[in-house]
Specification:
- With 163 residues, this protein is mostly helical.
- It has a single domain (22-161), classed as Tetracycline Repressor, domain 2 (Orthogonal Bundle), CATH 1.10.357.
- The chain is built from 8 helices and no strands.
- Helix 3 (22-42) packs across helix 5 (71-80) and helix 6 (88-111) crosses helix 7 (120-139).
- It is globular.
């Protein structure tokens, strides 16, 4: 908390006026960043006229670009997504705002019979796993992702999930 106050150029009392403890700070930051990702994703949740495949490529391409463009945010989210610091209420709130739209998208794709009929949690993991791995590899300098490679990678993920 001392480091946070110093970086924010405020007194410790100011931080404690808004947050009870460091766990609350982490939870609020986590929600804020998940909200930013949600905004990036929602821009690509198109109308029902846009083919599910193109929506998928757009959504997960945007997600990968977000991670690459915001490496500190990505690393924070990776570190704290499964941390005991994130409260159950925060997880629930983030899930309803950020994950539910994607789950609905996958369910729609299954209903349209263009996505394999698997548990949505599995589809979610299979779609987001490669994005996370590629972002880590790019940020570590192991691969240099340009727009063409991003699209190819997301299309390959689609190929694994399409019916």
């Amino acid at each position: 908390m001392t480091l946070l106050a110093k970086k924010a150029d405020v007194g410790m009392g100011t931080i404690y006026r808004y947050f009870k403890n460091k766990e609350e700070v982490i939870n609020e930051l986590y929600k804020e960043l998940k909200g930013e990702i949600n905004s990036a994703i929602r821009q690509n949740l198109s109308s029902k006229e846009t083919p599910v495949r193109e929506q998928f490529i757009s959504i997960f391409g945007s997600l990968l670009r977000f991670y690459i463009q915001h490496p500190q945010k990505f690393r924070f989210l990776e570190q704290y997504s499964y941390s005991p610091f994130i409260s159950c209420s925060t997880r629930k709130e983030v899930s309803s705002v950020c994950i539910e739209p994607l789950i609905s998208f996958f369910e729609y794709g299954m209903k349209c019979q263009v996505i394999k009929d698997l548990p949505t949690e599995l589809i979610f993991a299979m779609a987001s796993g490669p994005v996370i791995c590629l972002a880590k590899m790019h940020l570590a300098g192991e691969i240099n992702l340009d727009d063409e490679m991003i699209r190819s990678a997301i299309e390959t993920s689609w190929d694994a999930l399409k019916k």
